[in-house]
Design goal:
Rossmann fold; 2 domains; seven-stranded mixed sheet; 11 helices; 9 strands
């Protein structure tokens, strides 16, 4: 039976509404528009377009996955971050808008280093899709970076994303357990490490618990395992007047600050995310 774009949107919206999703209209537009490669304006202006049978089948299959609480951008296989269209894979954390706060916080230091010295070397620990590193490199021409991850799947995805945005020549993706395979000095070290306490994982929303890789979520008993490693080892790899920029959990500002202060760093800045929660800390050697 023939179906128009408007009818397909209505079907998806109704199904999500019955399932008590928060914003079924917005989700329907994101899902259907993403599947069909339509901009928001096209969804509004081309509602009478008759869909092909394969398009209808794709929409129905995607709807079933969303009703099973698979995130929309996982279904689409891509998500935008700081204007970059990034591929996702099972081994990558889905980049969220709050993480853009880290890019915004670190970017001025990267640009200042480029202006002063003509170069800036960035290390991204736990790079995943490459989101943080690639966003910084795309907005700071001349900077170079190394992205580190333990997941071969994540590194493969990060390399594809670097290539897709013309950044491969300035990017190295390296399999490493944090600093284990790292050498040399960096001007900026950044990370969005796992920071959720192990006991909290089972209570997360199913979109996160069942679809983001556990290694990118579980920060150990108190959520601070990765921060202890980064605080304890960063000084060896940080150049003069270097910067460490970190994403943190909403209640971790004091605990992470104490870890870094104990290792000879001082807190230079603390920034909040879109919801007003503590989200990013910047440290420099004391």
């Amino acid at each position: 039976m023939a179906k128009t774009l408007d009818q397909a949107l209505q079907q998806v919206r109704n199904a999500l509404k019955v399932a008590d999703f928060d914003d079924p209209g917005q989700e329907a537009r994101l899902l259907v528009g993403g599947l069909l490669g339509l901009a928001a304006s096209e969804i509004l202006s081309r509602g009478d377009r008759v869909l092909t049978e394969p398009e209808i089948e794709r929409i129905e299959a995607a709807l079933a996955r969303r009703l099973a609480r698979e995130p929309i951008f996982r279904i689409l296989g891509r998500r935008a971050f700081r204007g970059l269209d990034l591929a996702l894979s099972p081994g990558t954390l889905e980049p969220r808008p709050d993480t853009e706060t880290l890019v915004e916080a670190v970017l001025p230091s990267v640009q200042a280093r480029l202006s002063a010295n003509g170069s800036c070397r960035i290390l991204d620990l736990g790079t995943g899709t490459g989101a943080i590193l690639l966003a910084l490199l795309s907005e700071a021409p001349g900077a170079v970076g190394v992205g580190v991850d333990l997941s071969a799947d994540a590194l493969s995805t990060a390399r594809r994303n670097a290539e897709a945005h013309g950044l491969s020549a300035r990017t190295t993706m390296l399999e490493s357990d944090w600093f284990a395979e790292i050498s040399g000095q960096f001007d900026v070290i950044v990370s969005n490490p796992p920071y959720i306490p192990s006991k909290v994982i089972d209570g997360l929303e199913p979109e996160v618990r069942n679809h983001d890789p556990l290694a990118a979520l579980d920060g150990g008993a108190d959520g601070l395992d990765a921060y202890r490693i980064i605080a304890g080892q960063s000084r060896r790899f940080l150049g003069e007047a270097g910067l460490v920029g970190l994403e943190i959990g909403y209640d971790q500002k004091d605990s992470v600050s104490h870890l870094f202060e104990a290792e000879g760093f001082r807190l230079m800045a603390a920034l909040r995310d879109l919801a007003g929660h503590d989200r990013v800390l910047l440290f420099t050697p004391a």
